[in-house]
Amino acid sequence: MTRGTARRLRIGIDTGGTFTDVVALDEDGGGLVTTKTPSTPADPAEGFADGVAKVLALLGAEPSEVAALSHGTTVATNRLLEDRIDDLGFVTTEGFESILEIARQSVPDGYGNSYFWVKPPRIVAAHRVRTVGGRLDHTGAELRPFDEASAVAAARWFRDEGILAIGVCFLHSYADPSHELAMRDVLAREHPDAVVSLSCEVLREYREYERSVTTLVDAAVKPAMNGYLARIGERVESRLLVMKSNGGVLSADEVARQPITTVLSGPAAGALGAAFVVSHSGHGSVVTLDGGGTSTDVAVVLDGEPTLTTEGSIGRHPVKIPMIDIVTVGAGGGSVAWRSPEGALKVGPRSAGADPGPLCYGRGGTEATVTDAHAVLGRIPPHLLGGEVPLDVAAARAGLDALAGALGLPVERAAAGILEISAWNQANAIRQITVKRGLDVRDYPLVAFGGSGPLLACRLLDVLGLPAAVIPENPGNLSAFGLLTVDVKNDYVRTRVVRDAELDPAVLDGIYADLESDAARALAREGFPDDRRRFARSADLRYYGQAFEVRVPAPAGHPDEAFRAEVVRRFHDAHEALYGYCYRDDARHPVEWVNLRVSGIGPIARPRLSERPPGDGDPSRALTGTRTVYFDAWEEAAVYRREKLAPGDAVAGPAVIEEFGSTLPLHPGFTAELDGYGNLVVTR
What we know:
The chain is α+β, with helices and mostly antiparallel strands. β9 (about 165-170), α5 and β10 (about 195-200) form a beta-alpha-beta unit.
């Protein structure tokens, strides 16, 4: 490119617990540049701005050349996981003030646990709930009119108490939002400083408890999320897109209206990045493992698409929004190893995080972590990030010596035990998202990425019987890369409970048309013209008498009898795949439609991955020496630089393959081969 020619850069930034990962894409064919910078937990916006400045300096680029910033953030997630929910109020229908207390009347882990289980505190204290008169039935017909006097009294009470975040959820507002909209008008007039979330805008479907909690979670994270986005806006001038839990991105202005949609922002980007990268290598269905400093996130990709759910939860709060089906465990590089009162070795879920971090970071940490165990066993290099983070292995060994002494073990056995426990924690998360979903884990290769993701890949192949592990190029930055591969996406839902035999296709047509109009308006605000808008339909169905639904894709085209029959056929197939049976030809179990859904999608230009020419098959060009590494015993392991390997090169363990953002310890008996797209494929 001629010097001085303006470039169009897109930058993906994923803020993790320890590092902020950055990937820049030159849309005019200049390729990818990746880097990392330490996260700043006190103000994540500072680490975000540092990451932008660092990658622009590497490129020699100006801020004016950045066309868009795509961001995965944990601001909303962390607020919920840490239960930092203050100054929250709730408005609901008169007579239903105990909806949060009654909840679902279910005890975790079955009723055998009911003697010991203590019900957690509700998301809004009882004295902060106010009720308003008025009532709709399940069809949206008004039984009693909206009582403005009680609405005004509620708004003034919140104003006088200084409660600034308020969630509104009236009974059956999914069928007709008019009462909730009237309540918002009253709040705007009587309490203009309040941040308000309406259930008809956050989640327009039935089940009032889940709708209430989802709306309250949205209201709870809205001040923090909006403040964070505002601080980023002060530091950067480029258009900001924020990753959503559903696998799409949306502009910061749109996300500010519904911040709850970002609760799995970072992990969602990683799953999508993994799906995009490995699809080029012929792996359509895989298990993804994103290992970070604080936690590990696992997901399943089927036929190139991560599986979705609307039955998720963050911490103790059910969050009923479309999200990529992700299981998170506290098993990251910074997970703390500790001795239980009974004398057993435990790992996580508490993390040393970014500050002070593991002992080997030399920042004043006091507890041994998973990263310290890797350092003491020689499985990671003495300097991380190309020398930016020197490791104090002696400090890590001293901390592990103390823990090993308490356990009565040699330090190597204690360190290996820490890694074994961490591997089994990750394996159990993978089983939870595969075996519990009716999938045989042995059918799916593992895609391991994140800074700590590849470190236990070989052990996971053994524990789970997986066919292979795929380590993408720059695995430590794959979540940030994933942010550059996703489309703008928004979801809309409408409840319509009706038996299939009584369903009028004209009703389907009307609801889908309304949902697509809502989606089209949002895409227009995002700058997508008519010819660049796509709409994906789906529906939630169940057998009559069941409590929960199965979501299936619906075909495009005019909803008629053939459309209805095709959706029902897909439901029978999906039910049989999930549960092992269906009632396809049994009139005693009629099908019931519950929710209709539309996703509005604005496609964006994706990075182009090109196949590389094969090398000469001799990996010795990447060899940098040897290092003593502990696997089952201390032994000499060859050390390779990944960027010097060529397609077709095969490395046999024991070995260590190092790169800028991550490391792959290759155990004895394992082989890693570089494929044509730069992925390391590990097999036993």
